[in-house]
UniProtKB/TrEMBL annotation, chain A:
<dbReference type="InterPro" id="IPR027417">
    <property type="entry name" value="P-loop_NTPase"/>
</dbReference>
<dbReference type="InterPro" id="IPR050153">
    <property type="entry name" value="Metal_Ion_Import_ABC"/>
</dbReference>
<keyword id="KW-0862">Zinc</keyword>
<keyword id="KW-0547">Nucleotide-binding</keyword>
<feature type="domain" description="ABC transporter">
    <location>
        <begin position="8"/>
        <end position="243"/>
    </location>
</feature>
<keyword id="KW-0067">ATP-binding</keyword>
<dbReference type="Pfam" id="PF00005">
    <property type="entry name" value="ABC_tran"/>
</dbReference>
<dbReference type="InterPro" id="IPR003439">
    <property type="entry name" value="ABC_transporter-like_ATP-bd"/>
</dbReference>
<dbReference type="InterPro" id="IPR003593">
    <property type="entry name" value="AAA+_ATPase"/>
</dbReference>
UniProtKB/TrEMBL annotation, chain C:
<dbReference type="Pfam" id="PF01497">
    <property type="entry name" value="Peripla_BP_2"/>
</dbReference>
<dbReference type="InterPro" id="IPR050902">
    <property type="entry name" value="ABC_Transporter_SBP"/>
</dbReference>
<protein>
    <submittedName>
        <fullName>Iron ABC transporter substrate-binding protein</fullName>
    </submittedName>
</protein>
<keyword id="KW-0732">Signal</keyword>
<dbReference type="InterPro" id="IPR002491">
    <property type="entry name" value="ABC_transptr_periplasmic_BD"/>
</dbReference>
<feature type="domain" description="Fe/B12 periplasmic-binding">
    <location>
        <begin position="45"/>
        <end position="310"/>
    </location>
</feature>
<feature type="signal peptide">
    <location>
        <begin position="1"/>
        <end position="23"/>
    </location>
</feature>
<dbReference type="GO" id="GO:0071281">
    <property type="term" value="P:cellular response to iron ion"/>
</dbReference>
Length: 257, 330, 342
């Protein structure tokens, strides 16, 4: 089988803060249209891994490639055009409108002295429409629900026009309806060709959304590979340190309890 | 209201306040006299002196100082992601105050006092940034703010020491008046001396105004969107500090403008820094002109600007808090 | 550590002061506050609480001074008795901020504290508290200009130098009586409008009821400042333009030197007519700084400056007389020129 160059790959990666490794031996690769889920308990270091992949903190060792280029050789603007980040929540004390937030995604595409113009406005509206929230464009984010804010952040990542989205616990703080809304959006993006790497502590969600999975806990990488293959009762029991049962419902979905 | 229309409206309002400022003053001049003098009529030398050498420089200085403090306040609030931050947060006012009162104590010429205040204001912030770098790295906003509080307190202690050492009959009153802020002694060369620093500080803020707004999202987010957050924030702090130091060394310590005007502007423009900055500049200039016009017209003696801005500022600020609180916090 | 013995001495002094005056050899006087104070019959070591009191004490009984509030400046030395030049700087007890340490004060062994200045509840209370705490009698004397002759006599009485006090008080009375005679012949509209300029920019001033400008009103001039605030104030040059003073009196050398070239002061009658006068200030100011008996020099100087035609006598001689009588040294011609200009 011919393998194309992955949009994002890491090999033998060790990550951590201040020179102290939290994990080592992480390998991952992400191709267009694929969804990779980082699964593990809270506090396992998923956010640290994401910050490393985004180049916000340097890896302890190992190598991260964006396409054919090592991450360490790329400028912030170059990274931003290939890799967009969707943070867990929107943390600003100011009442920006949804459109203002989405327009920020154009920063890497604009010159240093430019402001977003009609083209960027159009792109931002398209991103909002793809997520079904175009009608919220002029609403202040302080008036939005948690799910709507998450969608705004995803729209901003889309406006960044990067091939890869990194989503940190995109549904962790959402209620059921919002969770469904965001999950649908993620699947649609993958179908349209965007590569997505997301973190979750919920194995059901990993099974429902991901093509591939990487199981991580404090002792390191438990398993990595196709989601259907590695999301086993045995792996999950090791991951969480409690006995886990795996069931397949009539619609073919995996459930863990 | 569109951005462009709002800018025009604020610019017109500023022109109106400048005209009010030029019309009102303790020396009685009729509007026709003022128009005649502005038109180049030199037949009444006294009117020419009052208007060209005293009143107009002062109105202009008020506009410049107000614009600088408001712009610096808007910039600081954005990069520190906190609407309650004022340009004094890193100790620039305390530092400039220390230099200026030291200059008064040493009996330096007025221009030297102004320059010394400017230099010590910048030095104070440089020490804060250096200390932050030595401790944790400039990415640590909280460390930076705490260093600012500590160094600012030292500068405040320095001011108190100078007051103690000053001659109570002559220097102490001068120090007290200076610390309360006033434009009574402003001359045309003072504005000329401060203008380069103000423009050097303002130009990058205007040129980068849209990107600077992204710092309001936090460092990680801004960096993930392709912004070198640490460097950009340092640049903004340097520019805002330059402007504040220039304004404070010219007019003394004037509180509230840098805190309050960005709030007023935000009500009109929303939080986007690219829209907030021009609006803050225009409102800050107009507001300061009105405040200074009051300062020289309420009584025959000057009312210190710091007192007026606090008296006007505190109620307006509480009003804004009541109106706007819900739009800043979750 | 050098000061350690002084503190021991201060402690001793405190202990001694705490013992009720068993063998009290003195007199009881009623000071300006109405307090009855027991003072020594012949005070030999007197602490002046502030600059006005220090000046008055110097003129009455310099040998009793234990120190100055502020050190004697080099320029002041030729006009002051040599034995007082190197008295220690002790700081002030009243006014804007205390700078004297009570232990340091007691280590000088004073048998009396005198203050000469404003009488209000704060100062009355302060006098009582210090007296109680330090165990040194504290006499407060009214420092207003109008009460000057009487206050000189009262202070002289307390210090046990009544003849000296009489000489100075009658001089003050005569000077003020001469002034009133002169003013009687000067119609109201011939009295100049005066602006007092302080600070290098000249925009700091004082109103007619302020102790800092009292002497200007006393010599019959009209202080252009209409505010009735007691303290100092800032005004804008435009306000001075509006007031259009005939004369500007300044205590700031820089302002006096530069005002001719400052564009915002042009056109003001005083500036246009060259009537900007720098008040002499050595060893004590003519206008204020401190507001004490030295202000009588301001009366002489302003009389000659404001009414050159009406004033009789020679100003240089009168000033020299005053310096000889009050300060103990008669300035020679060179010193007078240095003081008054040509």
């Amino acid at each position: 089988m011919e393998r194309m160059t992955p949009l994002l790959s890491a090999s033998d990666l060790a990550i951590g803060h201040g020179g102290k490794a939290l994990f080592q031996g992480i390998d991952l690769r992400l191709e267009p249209g694929r969804v990779l889920c980082l699964l593990g308990p809270n506090g396992a270091g998923k956010t640290t891994l994401f910050r490393t992949l985004l180049g916000l903190i340097p890896p302890i060792s190992g190598r991260i490639m964006l396409g054919d280029d090592p991450l360490s050789r790329l400028s912030r603007v170059q990274i931003a055009t290939r890799l967009a980040h969707v943070p867990q929540s929107l943390t600003t004390p100011f009442a920006f409108t949804a459109l203002d937030i989405v327009l920020m995604g154009a920063a890497a595409l604009l010159g240093p002295f430019s402001r977003p113009g009609p083209v960027e406005h159009q792109q931002a509206m398209i991103a909002l429409s793809r997520l079904g929230i175009a009608d919220l464009a002029q609403t202040e984010i302080t008036r939005l629900s948690g799910g709507q804010r998450q969608l705004v952040l995803i729209a901003r990542a889309l406006a960044q026009e990067a091939g890869v989205l990194i989503m940190d616990e995109p549904t962790a703080s959402l209620d059921f309806a919002n969770r469904v809304q965001v999950a649908n959006a993620i699947r649609q993006l993958a179908v349209a060709g965007t590569a997505i790497i997301l973190s979750s502590h919920d194995p059901d969600q990993a099974a429902a959304l991901a093509d591939d999975a990487l199981l991580l806990n404090r002792s390191g990488v438990i398993a990595s590979g196709s989601a259907q293959e590695i999301l086993t009762a045995e792996n999950l029991s090791r991951l969480y340190g409690i006995p886990v049962r795996r069931e397949r419902s009539t619609d073919g979905r995996l459930h863990f309890s | 209201m569109t951005e462009r229309r709002l800018s025009w409206l604020l610019a017109l309002a500023l022109i109106a306040t400048l005209m009010i400022g030029a019309m009102i003053g303790p020396y009685a001049l009729t509007p026709s006299q003022i128009v005649a003098v502005l038109g180049g009529d030199r037949s009444d030398p006294q009117a020419v002196t009052v208007l060209w050498n005293i009143r107009l420089p002062r109105v202009l200085a008020a506009a410049v100082v107000g614009a600088a403090l408001a712009a610096a306040g808007a910039a600081y609030q954005t990069v520190f992601r906190n609407p309650l931050v004022s340009p004094d947060i890193l100790g620039v006012s305390a530092g400039a105050g220390f230099g200026a009162v030291l200059g008064i104590l040493l009996g330096l010429p007025v221009m030297a006092i102004q320059i010394l205040g400017f230099v010590t204001g910048l030095t104070t912030v440089a020490i804060v940034l250096g200390l932050t770098l030595a401790l944790r790295g400039t990415g640590q906003v909280l460390v930076m703010v705490l260093c600012g509080i500590a160094i600012g307190a030292l500068a405040g202690a320095g001011i108190s020491l100078v007051k103690l050492l000053a001659d109570p009959d002559q220097q102490l009153p001068a120090i007290t008046f200076w610390l309360m802020g006033s434009l009574a002694g402003i001359k045309r060369p003072d504005i000329g001396a401060a203008l380069p620093a103000l423009l050097i500080g303002l130009a990058p803020l205007i040129a980068l105004r849209w990107r600077i707004g992204l710092l309001a999202m936090g460092d990680d987010e801004a960096r993930a969107m392709g912004i070198d957050a640490t460097r950009l924030r340092l640049l903004v702090i340097a520019c805002a500090t330059l402007m504040t130091a220039a304004a404070v060394s010219m007019a003394g310590v004037i509180g509230w403008i840098g805190l309050m005007v960005p709030h007023m502007a935000r009500l009109l423009t929303g939080p986007r820094f690219d829209r907030l900055l021009p609006a803050s500049i225009l409102i800050g200039a107009g507001f300061m002109v009105l405040v200074d016009t009051s300062a020289r017209s309420i009584a025959t003696i000057e009312v210190p600007l710091g007192i007026l801005t606090a008296v006007l500022g505190a109620p307006i600020f509480v009003f804004l808090l009541a109106r706007g609180a819900k739009s800043w916090s979750e | 550590m050098m000061q350690f013995p002084r503190y021991i001495f201060a402690g001793l002094a405190l202990a001694i002061a705490a013992i009720p005056a068993l063998a009290f050899d003195g007199k009881t006087i009623t000071d300006a506050t109405g307090r009855e104070v027991q003072v020594p019959a012949n005070p030999a070591k007197v602490f002046a609480a502030g600059p006005p009191a220090a000046t008055l004490l110097y003129t009455l009984k310099p040998e009793a001074m234990v120190g100055w509030v502020r050190p004697v400046k080099p320029a002041d030395r030729p006009y002051l008795l040599p034995e007082t030049h190197d008295l220690p700087e002790l700081g002030r007890l009243t006014g804007r901020g205390d700078t004297v340490n009570l232990e340091v004060l007691l280590s000088t062994g004073p048998d009396l504290i005198v203050d000469y200045g404003t009488i209000n509840a704060t100062y009355i209370d302060l006098a009582g508290r210090i007296q109680e705490q330090a165990g040194v009698p504290y006499v407060l004397i009214d420092g207003s200009f109008a009460a000057m002759p009487q206050s000189i006599r009262q202070m002289a009485d307390v210090l046990n130098v009544p003849e000296r006090g009489e000489a100075l008080a009658s001089y003050a009375e005569k000077t003020l009586a001469d002034l009133d005679m002169l003013l009687a012949d000067i119609p109201k509209d011939a009295r100049p409008k005066v602006y007092l300029a302080r600070g290098p920019e000249g925009i700091e001033t004082a109103g007619p009821s302020s102790i800092n400008a009292e002497v200007i009103t006393r010599v019959g001039a009209v202080n252009v400042v209409t505010s009735d605030s007691d303290g100092l104030a800032n005004v804008s040059p435009e306000q001075v333009q509006a007031w259009a003073p005939d004369v500007i009196v300044t205590i700031d050398r820089d302002f006096a030197a530069n005002v001719g070239a400052m564009p915002e002061w042009q056109g003001i009658p005083a500036v246009a007519n060259g009537r900007v006068y720098l008040a002499p200030s050595t060893p004590f100011g003519f206008i204020d700084a401190p507001p004490s008996v030295n202000r009588l020099t301001g009366v002489i100087w302003l009389t000659h400056t404001l009414y050159p035609d009406a004033a009789s006598g020679d100003m240089r001689t009168e000033i020299a007389d005053f310096y000889e009588l009050f300060y103990g040294l008669r300035p020679d011609d060179a010193a007078l020129t240095a003081l008054l200009g040509d």
